[in-house]
């Protein structure tokens, strides 16, 4: 008896859903007409504040990523200079939130690299917090070895993949 009721409910649902489908119009509407758009008299303003492009333009592409040595997550002098530049930008735009992505090279297990990526992202976050950027504006995520920027199994590729990248999320 229960299978008959269930079958009946399924059949009724199918019929009801089929009745709700849109049918194609018998006649298509005319195509839109082309109107001449006036040329702007002012130059484009550039990237909008709060976009990744604005961030990159403001701090420089080299200052958006911090690189690490093998199996390390410490912030060295070069990294601190990059993070100082980022900190100045985020202090200037207090309405912006951002993510620091931690990455590792392909060597090591998935679990190890996820943990290492997390330590790298948190090291960058902790530095930014120490120079006055509120922690509640910073999100961290670890991708481990899952999102390499350089493909290859050599030191040059590995060096590019051991990083913490800052991404504006607005």
Instruction: Give a count of the beta strands, DSSP E runs of length 2 or more.
Output: 4
Radius of gyration: 26 Å
CATH superfamily of one domain: OmpA-like domain
Terminal CA distance: 57 Å
* CATH top-level class of one domain: Alpha Beta
What does this structure look like?
The protein contains five helices and four strands. The chain is an alpha+beta fold and 170 residues long. The protein has a domain of 92 residues: 60s Ribosomal Protein L30, Chain: A (2-Layer Sandwich). A four-stranded mixed beta sheet has the order 1-4-2-3. The chain starts with a helix and ends with a strand.
Write the layout of secondary structure elements.
Blueprint: H1 2-19, H2 52-59, E1 65-67, H3 77-92, E2 98-103, H4 110-130, E3 138-144, H5 155-161, E4 163-168
Parallel strand pairs: 2-3
Antiparallel strand pairs: 1-4, 2-4
Summarize the structure.
With 170 residues, the protein is of the alpha+beta class. It has helices at 2-19, 52-59, 77-92, 110-130, 155-161; strands at residues 65-67, 98-103, 138-144, 163-168.
Key attributes of the depicted protein:
single chain; 170 residues; alpha+beta; 60s Ribosomal Protein L30, Chain: A; 4 strands; 41% helix; extended
């Amino acid at each position: 008896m229960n299978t008959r009721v269930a079958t009946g409910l399924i059949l009724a649902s199918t019929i009801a859903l089929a009745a709700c489908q849109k049918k194609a119009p018998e006649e298509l509407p005319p195509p839109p007409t082309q109107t001449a758009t006036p040329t702007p008299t002012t130059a484009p303003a550039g990237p909008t504040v709060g976009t990744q492009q604005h961030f990159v333009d403001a701090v420089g592409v080299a200052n958006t990523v911090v690189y690490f040595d093998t199996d390390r997550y410490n912030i060295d002098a070069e990294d601190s200079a990059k993070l100082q530049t980022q900190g100045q930008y985020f202090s200037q735009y207090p309405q912006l939130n951002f993510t620091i992505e931690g990455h590792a090279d392909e060597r090591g297990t998935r679990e190890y690299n996820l943990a290492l990526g997390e330590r790298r992202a948190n090291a960058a976050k902790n530095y930014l917090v120490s120079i006055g950027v509120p922690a509640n504006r910073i999100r961290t995520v670890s991708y481990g070895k899952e999102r390499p920027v350089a493909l290859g199994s050599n030191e040059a590729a590995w060096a590019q993949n051991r990083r913490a990248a800052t991404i504006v999320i607005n």
